[in-house]
Design brief:
about 525 residues, alpha/beta, Rossmann fold, GMP Synthetase, Chain A, domain 3, nine-stranded mixed β-sheet, eight-stranded mixed β-sheet, 15 helices, globular
């Protein structure tokens, strides 16, 4: 097997992910499915070229920002590759966000052109005149109103386009942080960053192949899915299947049975939800050879139940917007449940203690990671850039330990770790324990102040059936005491019908903490 591709100085990532497929003879291969539609590589290239020419006609030049607020549908791919082809800087945002949040991204990116779904217009039209940097709003759908129609703009444009002569170190895409401690900030990535990770994680760890078809729980605006459900399959001549509907267990089962994907991109909350879906055992997941999980640690209990029900190996891993994608992962055939796996080839890591030095082997600390896919800065956040991006190292804020075999074990975000009676407690460890109880469908553990102002664990629990009561709360507390050090048990157990999630599908702990802040 040949090693990772080297990227020349003059390099445009659209060539790597799209044009190359036609050049290498895969032009007539179907690569994108959506509802009743299917597109070949040649057709995707043609449509990307058309919209790239349309963008140039609308005044977009190299390094101008183009903002995408689109659901998962073919036009997302056409617009993404078109923007890359003309050398624009791509920014992607959730199209279902409230008006104020969408406005934030328009002002922050200063996008010259935005490509949006028609469903956003009722929120954007009243604000349109305040977007002083925006020249054109391009609308995907049948009702563009006073704005530019995506379909009409493409129909008028030529289907041949020479890619912008970009440098591998030119800015290419902004990936937004989750914004858990304030407004999301953009990690600025270069032309070579996404292909660099693709060569190492997608090809060497996932082992993605030309005959793979992918489906994703997270939507394409999220860098995790941009990679696994568009760029990675395209990098090897594979295919992706998209659905615009909200990711719900029934929708996922239907998509898997319809498109017969080989790789499913998921998150722990959806893995849990699919297992809890009535009739799950009767659904056909036989086409899958691999499931991916990231965003938050995958509990051992969920892995065990998933393997028992579906028998499809899950690769848990960790990545970030700052690094584009996964840099520590389990490997097919070598999964160690509960662990994050090992370093992806080409990446390096340190585990750093409070004194700034590396901790001893087996001890926990803050994960620092290094690799050529790292962002160069946060936009308009110089102090944050200096805090997180330290030379070649990225300070992730994740609390982990590495064992003697080189396996990494996740304990939580460093700022989420609880100090109980002077000893650090990992909320993740307590959650993993609670999930082993037969009545627990989902849970989250946070820090909560007692009457003396001291921090203790508090658990929010969704029951598998029925509602919880004081008796079940005591049973869960005893369950944890019997399996973990007694000081780790949740002092309070609060039952809920559901837990709040962010648009990445992760449990929104900040909303839970708002009910009982801790210092």
């Amino acid at each position: 097997m040949t090693g990772p591709m080297e990227f020349p100085e003059r390099f445009n990532m659209a060539w790597y992910f799209l044009d190359r497929n036609v050049e290498e003879g895969r032009g007539d291969k179907t690569c994108l499915f959506w509802r009743e539609e299917a597109y070949t590589y040649r057709e995707v290239l043609s449509r990307a070229n058309r919209f790239g020419n349309a963008l140039r006609a609308l005044g977009v030049d190299v390094e101008d920002r183009v903002l995408l607020a689109l659901p998962d549908r073919p036009e997302f791919a056409f617009a993404w590759f078109a923007a890359a082809k003309v050398g624009a800087v791509i920014a992607m945002v959730n199209p279902t966000l409230p008006a104020d949040d969408l406005a934030y991204y328009f002002h922050y990116t200063r996008a010259k052109v935005a490509v949006v779904d028609e469903s956003t217009l009722d929120r954007l039209d009243p604000l349109r005149d305040s977007f002083v940097h925006l020249r054109h709003l391009v609308v995907v759908g049948d009702r563009p109103g006073r704005h530019v129609s995506f379909a009409a703009a493409c129909a008028k444009a030529w289907d041949r386009l020479e890619n912008a002569d970009t440098h591998r170190d030119d800015p290419a895409i902004w990936l937004f942080t989750s914004g858990s401690t304030g407004r999301p900030k953009a990690a600025v990535h270069l032309q070579q960053d996404l292909p660099w990770n693709t060569e190492r994680y997608a090809k060497l760890v996932m082992g993605i192949r030309e005959d793979d078809v992918t489906v994703s729980v997270p939507k394409l605006f999220f860098g995790y899915a941009t990679g696994t459900n568009l760029l990675f399959p395209f990098a090897v001549g594979g295919a992706t299947a998209l659905f615009s509907e909200r990711s719900e267990p029934a929708t996922l089962f239907d998509a898997i049975e319809r498109y017969r994907p080989t790789i499913l991109t998921s998150v722990p909350t959806m893995i849990n939800a699919m297992l809890n879906q009535p009739g799950a055992k009767e659904r056909d997941l036989s086409s899958l050879r691999l499931c991916l999980s990231a965003g938050e640690a995958l509990p051992v209990e969920l892995y065990r139940r998933w393997m028992e029900v579906f028998g499809v190996e899950i690769l848990d891993g960790i990545g970030s917007a700052e690094m584009f994608h996964i840099y520590i992962s389990n490997v097919p055939g070598q999964v160690v449940p509960g662990s994050l796996g090992r370093l992806v080839p080409g990446y390096d890591a340190r585990i750093v203690g409070p004194d700034g030095g590396d901790v001893a082997g087996g001890e926990a600390g803050t994960l620092w990671v290094k690799g050529e896919s790292a962002a160069i800065m946060y936009w308009q956040a110089h102090e944050k850039s200096k805090e997180v991006l330290r030379g070649d190292w990225v300070v992730t804020g994740d609390h982990v330990r590495r064992d003697a075999d080189g396996l990494f074990w996740y304990e939580g975000r460093t700022d989420d770790m609880l100090k109980v009676a002077g000893i650090f407690v990992s909320p993740n460890e307590v959650e993993n324990c609670l999930l082993q109880h037969a009545r627990v469908a989902e849970c989250a553990v946070i820090g909560y102040k007692d009457r003396d102002g001291l921090i203790k664990p508090k658990a929010y629990v969704v029951c598998r059936a029925g509602t919880g009561d004081e008796s079940l709360a005591r049973e869960l507390q005893d369950f944890v005491k019997a399996r973990l050090a007694p000081f780790k048990y949740p002092r309070w157990v609060e039952f809920a019908l559901s837990l709040p999630k962010n648009d990445r599908g992760k449990i929104d702990r900040r909303k839970l903490e708002a009910a009982g802040p801790r210092s």
